[in-house]
Amino acid sequence: MWFPDHAYLIPLIAAASFVLILFFGKRMPKKGAEIGITALSICFVMALATNVQWFSHVNSAEHEAEVAQEEGEAAEALVSSESTGSATEPIEFEVEPSRASWTWWQSGDVTFSVGMLLDGPGVMMLFVVTLISLLVHIYSTDYIGGDRRYTHYFAFLSLFSASMLGLVMSETTLQLLTCWELVGLCSFALIGHWWEEKPNSDAALKAFITNRVGDVGLICGVIILFFAADQSFDIVTINEMALNGEISHLALLVASCSLMAAVMSKSGQFVLHTWLPDAMAGPTPVSALIHAATMVVAGVFMVARLYGVFFQGFSIGTSSVNPLVVIGAITVIGGASLAFVQKDIKKVLAYSTVSQLGYMVMALGVGAWTAALFHLFTHAMFKAGLFLGAGSVAHSVHSFDMTEHMGGMRKFMPKTFVTFLICTAALIGLFPLAGFWSKDEVLSGAQQLGGEGGYLVFMVVGLVGAFLTALYMTRCIYLTFFGEPKGHAADAEHPPHESGRRILVPLYILSGMAIITGFANLPNSGVLSGSPDGASLRFEHFYEPKGSYFPSVLETFDHPEFNVLIALGSTIIGLLGISLAYAWYWKGRGPHGLTSRNKFAKAGYTVLVEKYYLDHLYTGIIVGAVKGPIARGAYWFNQKGIDGVVNSAGVAAVKSGKFVYERIDQGVVDTIVNASGSAAGGSGQRLRRIQTGRVQQYAALLFAGAAILAGIFIIVI
Amino acid sequence: MDDLLLNQFLLLGAVLFCIGVYGVLARRNAVLVLMSIELILNAVNINLIAFGAFWGSITGSVFALFVIAIAAAEVGVGLAIVLLIYRNRRSVDLDDVAEMKG
Amino acid sequence: MVAQNVFFYLLAGIILFSAFRVVTSNNVVHAALYLVAVLAAVAAEYVLLAAEFVAATQVLVYIGAIIVLFLFGIMLTRAKLGSDQDLTHPHWALSAATAVVMFGVMGYALVDQFHWTATPLPADTRLVSVDGSNSATVSDSVFTAYLVPFEVVSVLLLAALVGAIVLARKD
Q: Quick one: pLDDT at residue A665?
């Protein structure tokens, strides 16, 4: 158990690599890339060793439990000759997580500790993060070779990996929060890597600020849990107390809702997902890292980590419709439909990630913990492969635009094409690739968990999502690799060429993983119930926590079984999507030009292109309403003086609301959301009069208010 | 009248506090407003020390020390701001500084 | 104990009179000097409460440093030396009313809660200490239980230092 017990060294090595690159990188012959690659290689090897030792740890725990059970049975058999336990029943056993803990600081009586809590999900994430990060490092040496901030880029890649590795083995919620913020910071730096161009720095800011919204939720959740769990930040303690019913349901519900906000922003769930597609402004390897291994899965991982809290808080497993499953389902459909209208290959993949994250959150919402984490695992492999493949194509045509500069790329880049095809098939979920197994498990979870078909609706949503996935990915393949070369791809003087080895090798590895990782959790039920014990459900066996801090102690926690109908159904639906897209693009069948002829279809298309107008809502309406009308209001105030406003409160509210409505109508198109805008503007109008700009008047209000409050307290108490 | 009472310190603090509040509200010179804020902070410190003595706890003294440290920082930054205002408009009259009027 | 009481009222008188002059004086420099008197008398009150370390800090930091800063501020802003009628708002009565109301609320609460005779301070207000002073106790406390706030304050001071320089320097 040396490696699991010392796994905290892994993030430390990556962090040390950050410091080394920052200080010595520029003087190294390869500008610091070699430090990062060496460090990450060490991390990867250590993560592998950790996995291996963890497997034997789990197996020995199971073996001990088996022996104990047999002894118990033997003892029982002496008393009564009946055999009580059937041989097929899985044996209950606990696996002790690897832990380490140090005092970070203390204030008064409260001690804050840092430490390591390494169990199944952490071990799994160690493997995913180090593998993908290492591949991204190697890939980047070619992809951004010769860049002006090459060294800083590698430094931040290292820090990014370090913070994510720290996050997955956090012992306390406070540590989780710290690493969470670090991940956000690194993503900000990397998305804005080419900050000289305005859209890039805007995208970085957007990612950062959108994540701030969710971070507030995380902080609130951490604080609520701290006080609810008798002043403890310890994740195991919090989960145990939540599962034992020592924390009131209300506190858990409020905490879960707060944490939900964090998941929505970090893991790109609907309404707060808008930063994710914009984050494509960063270098492609960074997108791969963000979308596969770090950043976005942090939210899913956080839910998985604090699953006891969510399980009780949202009453998962008792067929109640909870925010997790609803938001997840909306995201599945919303993300997939947006992916369909994108012209930028990376944005297709970005929305695809949004949609796939929806699956994971939905799976967590229905109680299929293992399915969610398994999907995270397989998705990391093929999505990283897709991003790196897209980067490989873009590297040779110098554009991400599928409709303008790509097409027919399969002739120029056959190797990239094959890997991209494999990863796409895995994403669509074709048998027997990775996505087939994991998506199927999510769908089975929605079908079987939560009592009497409690989540059946969400299974349908999942199937529709699978259909859409097949459609947009086939479209993406067609536009990129088939048809006639266009734009840069058709440039006769500089024809596109296959990428170099440092780009191709990571692609091979990832597409290989996309083929085999699905078998990591081969089902052992339904038609596949004959599969050998040592080969089936390995993922669940090794990576699902077994202990008092995980909901498996509860009756309502269950695993879905393999359902051949769902498996067949989702495959057929996937194939249907592919063939529809095939008929549309390759054969030119179907009502082409529908969007230009049919008003209704055109409106739908526009809504999708405008990304459901969410960005308009955020920047146009909310920011605009706070900024624009107030500024205009000040002007208007100067013009008309105070008399116009000083009416009765109701009249003033109506007037100002109407006024803002008229002004805003000219600047912003969308009329639906105007109501909220005018409300904000109206209240701004009213509040403005207090703002005389005189400090002492503010101070007078402050002191008078304090005196009145104190007076009230004296009277009341 | 022969024991020191907790309340006499607290009331002294209260009076000092209110004098400070009056100074903050009534003075026009920014430097004088900052001085009045010092009066308020001292009033708070008297309370802290008095309660510390009353409960036999050292925490009151420690907090008073922190208040003094923060007061020093506040005066430094405050006077820098006043200086900047003076440099820009040749006056430290707070009535002239109403740029933030909504 | 009578002597302590006598000193208390003497110091309280100095504090209140000087504080009153700080907020009413028509001369900025006089106000600053009255502030010195307030601070010194408050330091003496601390000694009465057996908090000599805080008293020493009060003298060093407040009278030694902050007052000097104020005097610099007064000079650099070229305040009118001598009497200046413009230092107080014309509607000062309103401010006075606010202050009086505040005192009413606070005074009522204090008298209601702690009464006059019921809450004497412990006869031996000297806190647990090793060598007859409470400085050791204060430092023990600052460097163990309150280490983190202490470090945070040092960062705050650094930030204030940098901020003050950035604000006040001439570009």
A: 47
C61, C8: one domain: yes
Q: Verify whether the Cβ–Cβ distance B95 to A691 is below 8 Å.
A: no
Q: How many structural domains is chain C composed of?
A: 2
Give the number of C-alpha atoms closer than 13 A to the C-alpha of residue B94, restricted to the C-beta side.
Answer: 24
> Are A332 and A359 within 8 A, CB to CB?
yes
Output the CA angle A369-A374-A379, nearest 5 degrees: 130
Chain A: partners with 3+ C-beta pairs within 8 Å: B, C
The reply to whether residue C105 touches residue A711, judged by beta carbons under 8 angstroms, is: yes
CA distance A663 to A686: 17
Percent of chain A with pLDDT over 90: 0
The answer to whether B55 faces chain C, any CB pair under 8 Å, is no
CA pair distance A396, A414, nearest whole angstrom:
13
Q: Are A499 and A142 in contact, with CB atoms under 8 Å apart?
A: yes
Structural domain that includes position C20: 1-80
Q: What are phi and psi of C26, to 5 degrees?
A: -90, 5
- Does residue C126 lie within any of the structural domains? yes
Mean pLDDT along residues C43-60: 89
Residue A669, pLDDT score: 42
What is the SS3 assignment for A99?
strand
CB contact under 8 A, C58 and B34: no
**Nearest Cα to B43, choosing from B10, B70, B76?**
B10
Alpha-carbon distance A564 to A442, whole Å? 14
Residue among A98, A135, A121 at smallest CA distance from A7: A98
Whole-number Å distance between alpha carbons of A183 and A298: 9
Domains of chain B and CATH, by start: 3-98 (1.10.287.3510)
DSSP secondary structure of A546-610: -STTSGGGSTT-------HHHHHHHHHHHHHHHHHHHHHHTS--S-TTHHHH-HHHHHHHHHHHT
C10 and C71 part of one domain:
yes
Q: What is the pLDDT of residue C132?
A: 60
Helix and strand element counts for chain C (H, E): 7, 0
| 3-state SS class at B5 | strand
For residue B18, give the nearest of C28, C53, C99 by CB distance.
C99
pLDDT, tens digit (0-9, with 9 covering 90-100), for A47-101? 888 888 888 888 888 788 778 877 777 776 666 554 444 444 556 677 778 888 8
Please report whether residue C9 resides in a domain: yes
pLDDT digit string, tens, across residues A288-311: 888 877 788 888 899 888 888 888
Pick the closest to residue A559 from A315, A301, A305, A317 (CA basis).
A317
Check if A456 contacts C (Cβ < 8 Å).
Answer: no
Q: At A630, is the secondary structure helix, strand, or coil?
A: helix
CA dist., res. A497 & res. A396, Å (int): 6
Separation of alpha carbons A498 and A413, rounded Å: 5
User: How many angstroms away from the CA of B5 is the closest CA of chain A?
Assistant: 22
